[in-house]
Amino acid sequence: MSACTRMPCLFVPHGGGPCFFMDSGPPFSRETWEKMAEYLRGVADSVGARPKAILVISGHWDAKRPTVNAAPTHSLYYDYYGFPEHTYRLAYPAMGSPALAAHVRDLLAVAGVASDEEASRGLDHGVFIPFMLMFPDADIPIVQLSLREDMDPSAHLAIGRALAPLRDEGVLIIGSGMSYHNLREFFRAGKGDAEAAAFDSWLVDAVTDPARRDERLAAWREAPGAIACHPDARRRRRRGRRPRAPRLSGPHHGQGAFGLPVRLNAQGRRQTRRRTRISQATGWFASKRKVVDWRATRRKRGA
């Protein structure tokens, strides 16, 4: 595959549960999720060339070692609770790719990364919900890769580097997650805005700083607003466990794989967060507050 058709890496949002396929009650409205849905519907066009296959990493699957779903066909794992009955009948009949799954494991092995394989777990809602909007025909083979349960940022960066060759083989790599996941503040109007803005600003700087990108992402929990946006990290530290921020592991994979910032939206722009009760609704740190063109930032920094 030529350099001009090299696949990008995407970090996309998946909303809250099956939010795009139901009527939302207070404090949400249909408009709350429609802006994110509109973005997701434009993802395929933003990629350009049709991918041969998709490797997806969701914030909702972790295992002791990175685990590849090698199923030839996929069931769905409705890992959300208390939603309307019809949302448990949503369908996304995508094919898998045992060949790609094996190739992923080979690349990891060459890099010294031990991995596992399974074929029974369905695609979780971090995959099938956004994919129903991004690729509604379900006609591109999908392989899902888990996170490591310890959420070690450096380990995930290494996994990403190992998977870099996939870009030149027609494989689109997608991380699905959020940069804000404080559910307690999520439902309190006006709460968490400053912390979210500070963390988003730090993330923009980190991913557009090629000289220190890995170092900074590995130390994400020291960033301004990081623990407020991901309070689970503090709880795990108190229990003597490694802090984790599963919604951030998609970017960690992307940074490692490509040595460049992930592509954050159709225009190649990074939008920091718009606080409208939607938990960093666009996943790529969406905001009406300001738009940052990370490509221009990279050029200034020599990325």
CATH class: Alpha Beta
Helix-strand category: alpha/beta
Major β-sheet, in short? Answer: 4 strands, parallel
Helix content: 25-40%
Query: How many domains, in number, for the residues?
Result: 1
The shape, in one word, is globular
- Overall CATH architecture: 3-Layer(aba) Sandwich
Residue fraction in strands: 5-15%
Give the averaged pLDDT, no decimals: 77
Whole-number radius of gyration? 18 Å
Note the topology.
Blueprint: E1 9-12, H1 30-41, H2 43-47, E2 53-63, E3 67-69, H3 98-110, E4 116-118, H4 125-134, E5 142-148, H5 153-162, E6 171-176, H6 183-186, H7 193-207, H8 213-218, H9 226-229, H10 232-238, H11 249-258, E7 270-271, E8 291-292, H12 294-301
Helix pairs in contact: 5-11
Molecular structure report:
The chain has a single domain (3-301), classed as 3-Layer(aba) Sandwich (Protocatechuate 4,5-dioxygenase, Chain B). The chain has helices at 30-41, 43-47, 98-110, 125-134, 153-162, 183-186, 193-207, 213-218, 226-229, 232-238, 249-258, 294-301, and strands spanning 9-12, 53-63, 67-69, 116-118, 142-148, 171-176, 270-271, 291-292. It has twelve helices and eight strands. The strands form three sheets. A four-stranded parallel sheet has the order 1-6-2-5, with helices on both faces. Strands 3-4 form a two-stranded parallel ribbon. A two-stranded antiparallel sheet has the order 7-8. The model is unreliable at 236-240 and 245-303 (pLDDT under 50). It starts with 8 loop residues before the first strand and ends with a helix. With 303 residues, the chain is of the alpha/beta class.
